[in-house]
Specification:
227 residues, alpha+beta, Type Iii Antifreeze Protein Isoform Hplc 12, five-stranded antiparallel β-sheet, two-stranded antiparallel ribbon, 26% helix
């Protein structure tokens, strides 16, 4: 066998050995990466998913774009219901309830804005997140006059009274043919997610700050529900 042929065979064998070594190395790297990921997930206590989140505070009426929202990893067990991960369900949508920086985008805070509400002179309109348990079982509706209390872990403070409700996420219509509740609400209506209040400008700032640090309870005084 010629020296040239021997060198070719030796080079081929070396190439095969090198390829096998690289394959084993890649397998080892993948195994280490998988183990590291599993250990990280175990440390955080759950699976992570990528959902769209606000990169800054986003006001009512703004359109979601790649400039104000971006995909971020969240623990699935900590995500609020309705958090969105599909780009087509997020970009181009209009915000109907203000989003705070780093807050996941949820379907209940998006949609088409209705005809602008009529705000009484000297007041301003501000929307705050709410839910049935914070708003007399969801009985609050446009035209109601309420007292607003800020509640956190240690205190309860009245922020404003005789506050006019301009609009809610449920609108004002009662579904036809449905049984009405104590305050005239429909038994099949959606859960309340936000309300818009008419308040003094100084009170608006206080409401926004309070909504970020605790719950805002809307209390309906006797005779305060206007038809």
């Amino acid at each position: 066998m010629s020296q040239t042929r021997k060198r070719l065979i030796l080079a081929l064998l070396c190439g095969l050995v090198a390829a096998a070594a690289m394959a084993l190395y890649a397998t080892g790297v993948r195994a280490e990466a998988t183990q590291a990921r599993e250990e990280a997930l175990a440390s955080y206590g759950g699976e992570q998913v990528e959902v769209y989140s606000a990169v800054r505070d986003i006001a009512v009426g703004e359109t979601l774009t790649s400039e104000n929202v971006s995909p971020r990893l969240w623990l699935s067990d900590l995500l609020p219901a309705g958090a969105l991960c599909d780009r087509d369900e997020v970009l181009g949508q209009t915000v109907t309830v203000a989003l705070m920086e780093n807050e996941p985008v949820i379907a209940a805070k998006l949609g088409a804005l209705k005809t602008p509400v009529s705000v009484p002179d000297g007041l301003c309109a501000v929307s705050i997140p709410s839910e049935d348990v914070l708003a007399v079982g969801g009985a609050i509706q446009a035209g109601s006059f309420v007292t607003v209390y800020a509640v956190n872990a240690t205190t309860v403070e009245m922020i404003a009274e005789e506050v006019l409700i301009l609009e809610t996420s449920n609108g004002t219509q009662v579904a036809s043919g449905e049984a009405s509740g104590l305050f005239g609400g429909s038994g099949s209506r959606p859960q309340l997610s936000w309300v818009t209040l008419a308040v003094e400008p100084d009170t608006a700032q206080e409401l926004i700050a309070a909504s970020r640090s605790g719950d805002l309870h809307l209390v309906l005084p006797g005779g305060g529900l206007h038809e």
